[in-house]
């Protein structure tokens, strides 16, 4: 596998995307990206800050065709960009905004492809070993780190995943996502899956339930919705009627079985959970209403030694240590028991923050909630837990009473801080830096 086509071979008039209610053909998309590739400055690194999913994809594929590495940070905050610029002095920002969103040399990308007729042009071939992007971790568990991804490995991962997802959905779909496309989950599932895996990309990035319903109605069936447990819960609570879905994909946090059951019943569609990370990409799937076990992708293997789980093979560049506690059931199946960094020990009793968060978020009257650890001691011993909640009309006593029905008293949070909202990012996660700020502000 020395080189691969930038786009899968298909007819020039085949539909690859939908933007603003209009179908975009393969020829038009190739036209756009090749025109952009010709305009990208002569640099080694670009920062893709396009807000429209279509132009983000066209710019990313243009950079791949040009041989320019795309840097995808977890945030466009000034201090994050300054740090990246220190590592890449030649960094140029590409975006679809009229003016530069950050203090960098800037190229606006938008408009049609300047008259190039892509139908008569050959699709570029990309070296499989070409590193096409550096993707940064979300920062939900600490300082963000970047990981390089090569074109060949990305294609291998996406084609394996497409087989799983199209199988569950009954065939290739138009893919709409509620998640950011700059992070690994959104990249794989809403950019590469439709464009490399044979689906169709939907350009909109809806957040509120009514916007999700409108965006789904704007594209033809079959439709696949890429979302998170946080967004999925909001969709169900809205009581809005949604257009028919062929399948729903969920990731970024454990999907509670009761939420999966309710979503499948209400939306009349299968829900597929994806397991992976920025380091590994997606490596396994499961249907949580059918099984608690995950099925690894073809040629992916998991091994354990002294409690550490290592995943290797398949599309992985090199073996990777998983941060989760895993029970291996067979060569291709495993169960997740919790995240290693999530385990807490309160006066000798152990639990996981992910489980505690699931309990508090599901309490009657609680719209959102999360546990936190104000301070820790050696051996992960925790003197107390605290919690932040969005629960209009409730008092700490109400939440403690409900928690006592499900938790040992040692895990009751003290204090409970009531907020109007929690600082979740587009993936439904709370970055470690944001949690640290909440603790410093509200908890003595």
Q: Tell me, what is the CATH class of the largest domain? A: Alpha Beta
pLDDT averaged over residues: 89
Identify the strand order in the major beta sheet. Answer: 3-2-12-11-13-14-15-16-17-22-21
Gyration radius (Cα, Å) is 22 Å
Q: Could you tell me the CATH topology label of the largest domain.
A: Rossmann fold
Q: Counting H and I runs of at least 4 residues, what is the number of helices? A: 11
Which structural class do the helices and strands define? alpha/beta
Question: What is the gist of this entry?
Answer:
The chain has 444 residues and is α/β, with parallel strands linked by helices. The protein is 29% helix and 28% strand.
Q: What is the element layout, followed by pairings?
A:
Layout: E1 3-5, E2 15-19, E3 22-25, H1 26-39, E4 45-48, H2 53-66, E5 69-72, H3 78-87, E6 92-95, E7 106-108, E8 125-127, E9 131-136, E10 146-150, H4 151-169, E11 174-177, H5 184-196, E12 200-202, H6 209-217, E13 223-227, H7 229-238, E14 247-250, H8 257-267, E15 271-277, E16 281-286, E17 294-296, E18 300-305, E19 308-313, E20 320-321, E21 324-328, E22 333-339, E23 343-346, E24 349-352, H9 353-361, E25 368-372, E26 376-377, E27 381-382, E28 386-390, H10 396-403, E29 416-418, H11 432-442
Task: Spell out the key features of this protein.
444 residues; alpha/beta; Rossmann fold; GMP Synthetase, Chain A, domain 3; 3 domains; eleven-stranded mixed beta sheet; six-stranded mixed beta sheet; 11 helices; 28% strand
Structural description of this entry:
The structure is a single chain. The protein has 444 residues and is of the alpha/beta class. It folds into three domains: 3-127, Rossmann fold (3-Layer(aba) Sandwich); 205-340, Rossmann fold; 347-442, ANL, C-terminal domain (GMP Synthetase, Chain A, domain 3), CATH 3.30.300.30. The chain has eleven helices and 29 strands. The chain has helices at 26-39, 53-66, 78-87, 151-169, 184-196, 209-217, 229-238, 257-267, 353-361, 396-403, 432-442, and strands spanning 3-5, 15-19, 22-25, 45-48, 69-72, 92-95, 106-108, 125-127, 131-136, 146-150, 174-177, 200-202, 223-227, 247-250, 271-277, 281-286, 294-296, 300-305, 308-313, 320-321, 324-328, 333-339, 343-346, 349-352, 368-372, 376-377, 381-382, 386-390, 416-418. An eleven-stranded mixed β-sheet has the order 3-2-12-11-13-14-15-16-17-22-21. The protein has a six-stranded mixed β-sheet with strand order 7-6-4-5-9-10. Strands 24-23-27-26 form a four-stranded mixed β-sheet. Helix 1 (26-39) packs across helix 2 (53-66), helix 4 (151-169) packs across helix 5 (184-196) and helix 7 packs across helix 8. The N and C termini lie far apart (58 Å).
